[in-house]
Amino acid sequence: LTVLGLETSCDETAASVVRLAAAGAQVLSSVIHSQIDDHAAYGGVVPEIAARSHVEMIDGVTRRAMSEAGLNWSGLDGVAATAGPGLVGGVMVGLSYGKAAALARGLPLIAVNHLEGHAVSARLGAETTYPFLLLLVSGGHCQLLEVRGIGDMSRLGTTIDDAAGEAFDKIAKALGLGYPGGPALEKLAASGDGSRFELPRALLGRKDCDFSFSGLKTAASRLAQTCETEQDRADLADAVQKAIARQLAERSERAMKDYAEQHEHRLFVVAGGVAANKTIRRTLEDLATKHGFAFLAPPMAYCTDNAAMIALAGAERLEKGLVSDIDVAARPRWPLDEARANVDPVHK
Ligand code: ATP
Ligand code: MG
Ligand code: FE
């Protein structure tokens, strides 16, 4: 199955063609136009600017993805587009473009939950089998999920306040780093030693798998004001990165223990933008090994937003016959464990 994927839920306009075969997924093309420069002056993503830029870019980005894949439209089996969650103005651009393309070419449309895209993204780099335990850490989400298959996931825990990526971004801003803050903070942390900073540890000893990052965010942002030298800032960045890694590991460890009691096939996957962080990847890999889990993270290029993960989720859905109505609506909010069928409850 060969599927075109479209992603426009935040500040990347992306299109990709993915082929799903018995041997696994093959990315034929993956084009990403980042709007970072459009939003940089505002210190964050401005929804109106994002939507307008998606309108300008979507056609060119899609044409490039098709030509880099060496395909014409008759070579496709379906068109997948992110239908939420995200900034609804942007989501509507990609979804409407996908609907038009599907209608014009007589192809099935597959509306994909953006988080489901992140959930399957590790499968773009390695052949894997379901089920697996997933830590999804992105700009807007921080969740532990049991993933039994496409459209069949349940949530074991979630953040009660901020997402990990959001904490990286806000603390980076307080440290005077640009947006997005995660990569910049990681770079700064490389020359730091955070051992002199004491940062709060949230939810210690709690029996569930929830997360909390707002206490850390507030404490670190306050400490950032007291930093005088570049070395002070690097030290704080290192402390923050380690504190975030530690909380992700503590909560994942709890989930692993429960999961291991119920499953023989033990695979732990981390996905989402924060999974690009090397300290976090290493910490989680060590933890997985310690608990007898195989470990998998997406190739670096597919951690942050991309359309290959949307094309793959679309192909997996298409394989199961989970296609969408052409009048499916964009959804600003859309919990992952409700991503079950083709389905937009609003229209059913
Ligand atoms: P969501 O998927 O929840 O809707 P999003 O699409 O904006 O949110 P992603 O693109 O998956 O999120 O990830 C972006 C986030 O990942 C940002 O918060 C960014 O700071 C963070 N991030 C990216 N690279 C790194 C890194 N190397 N270290 C830490 N954080 C990172
Ligand atoms: Mg982005
Ligand atoms: Fe994302």
TrEMBL record:
What superkingdom does the record give?
Answer: Bacteria
Q: Its GO CC terms?
A: cytoplasm
Spell out the molecular function terms from Gene Ontology. Answer: iron ion binding; tRNA N(6)-L-threonylcarbamoyladenine synthase activity
> Which keywords label this protein?
Acyltransferase, Cytoplasm, Iron, Metal-binding, Transferase, tRNA processing
Q: Which InterPro entries match?
A: ATPase_NBD, Gcp-like_dom, KAE1/TsaD, TsaD
NCBIfam families reported for this sequence: gcp_kae1, T6A_TsaD_YgjD
Per the entry, what this protein does is: Required for the formation of a threonylcarbamoyl group on adenosine at position 37 (t(6)A37) in tRNAs that read codons beginning with adenine. Is involved in the transfer of the threonylcarbamoyl moiety of threonylcarbamoyl-AMP (TC-AMP) to the N6 group of A37, together with TsaE and TsaB. TsaD likely plays a direct catalytic role in this reaction.
Q: Give the organism the record lists.
A: Brevundimonas naejangsanensis
- What EC numbers are recorded for this enzyme? 2.3.1.234
Q: Name one GO biological process term.
A: tRNA threonylcarbamoyladenosine modification
Q: What protein family is recorded? A: Belongs to the KAE1 / TsaD family.
Under SUPFAM superfamilies, the record lists:
Actin-like ATPase domain
Q: Cofactor note from UniProt? A: Binds 1 Fe(2+) ion per subunit.
Residues binding Fe cation are: 114, 118, 305
Which cofactor(s) are needed, names only?
A: Fe(2+)
Q: Where in the cell is it found?
A: Cytoplasm
Descriptive protein name: tRNA N6-adenosine threonylcarbamoyltransferase
Q: Which gene encodes it?
A: tsaD
Q: What is its main location?
A: cytoplasm
Q: Which Gene3D superfamilies match?
A: 3.30.420.40
Which parts of the sequence bind substrate?
136-140, 169, 182, 186, 277
Annotated Gcp-like domain residues: 26-311
The record lists the catalysed reaction(s) as: L-threonylcarbamoyladenylate + adenosine(37) in tRNA = N(6)-L-threonylcarbamoyladenosine(37) in tRNA + AMP + H(+)
